[in-house]
Amino acid sequence: NEQQRLWLWNHGQRRRGTRMPTSTTVSRTWVECAELFRAADAHKPKGKRFEEWKGSQDDAYERFLTLPRRRMFLFFPTGEGKSKTSLALIASEGWDKCVVIAPLKTHDAWIADAAVLGLQVKVYTHEKFRMTGTHTPTNVPWIVDEYHKLGGHSGEAFKKWKRLSTKISAPIIGASATPSYNQPDRAFCLEVAFDDSPIFNYG
Q1: pLDDT for res 3
Q2: Integer Cα distance of 72 and 65 in angstroms
Q3: Model pLDDT, residue 62
Q4: If we measure between CA atoms, which residue out of 87, 77, 32 comes closest to residue 56?
Q5: Region 122-146: what's the mean pLDDT?
Q6: Residue 70 vs residues 2, 17, 64, 82: alpha-carbon distances, Å
Q7: For residue 30, what pLDDT is reported?
Q8: Eight-class DSSP state of 172
Q9: What was the pLDDT predicted at 184?
Q10: ∠195-92-27 over CA atoms, to 5°?
């Protein structure tokens, strides 16, 4: 089926280094995304499965709709649902693909959640993103999990991201449970790529 096809493509593409295939139409409302996640988790025991959006996730969606370029930072603690929220925000805008930067140990979870929503994803580690030659499309959404791992404003990874963020014409979602927002250097890094002030809205 379509979900299995997407999972297989998403799971294999990061090993082969292939580029994203031609777009297909995806239209998911915020409510439909929740229904899809709930159905996908139905086999899991209670307490381990997705049931419904939390208040913080609904609040993020409502705020996302107010942002002119759809560029938002999620200050979610571990376990709050950063990946599902981020992917659903992208899908609810009608996008069918995106690029994700995230720690390697989370890649399978990102790929599985994306497939549930019918999204094609290219998933990089922060180290892979930093490398010369890594494909960085500017016409698809980007999600940067553990944003602080891009480093400080003088680091090569952040400087590359800063340049790229000025060219991306699609939504950007940043996320971190440990953003170090109270450090001036990291505070600057949080400010440059988003529509609202992540520091002002912290907490």
Answers
A1: 47
A2: 10
A3: 96
A4: 77
A5: 95
A6: 27, 28, 6, 16
A7: 96
A8: E
A9: 73
A10: 145
Three-state DSSP at 97 gives strand
What is the H or E stretch that residue 143 is in? strand 142-144
Residue with tokens 């981020």: 86
DSSP string, 103-116: -GGGHHHHHHHHHH
163-168 mean pLDDT: 95
**Three-state secondary-structure class, residue 159:** helix
Supply the DSSP string of 188-203, one letter for each residue: HHHHTT-SS-TTTT--
Cβ 101 vs Cβ 145: under 8 Å: yes
- The residue assigned the tokens 């992917």 is 87
Q: pTM, whole model, 2 decimals?
A: 0.85
User: What is the spatial distance between Cα 191 and Cα 120, in angstroms, rounded to a whole number?
Assistant: 28
CA 194, chain centre distance (Å): 13
Q: Is 6's pLDDT higher than 60?
A: no
Name the maximum alpha-carbon separation found in the chain: 49
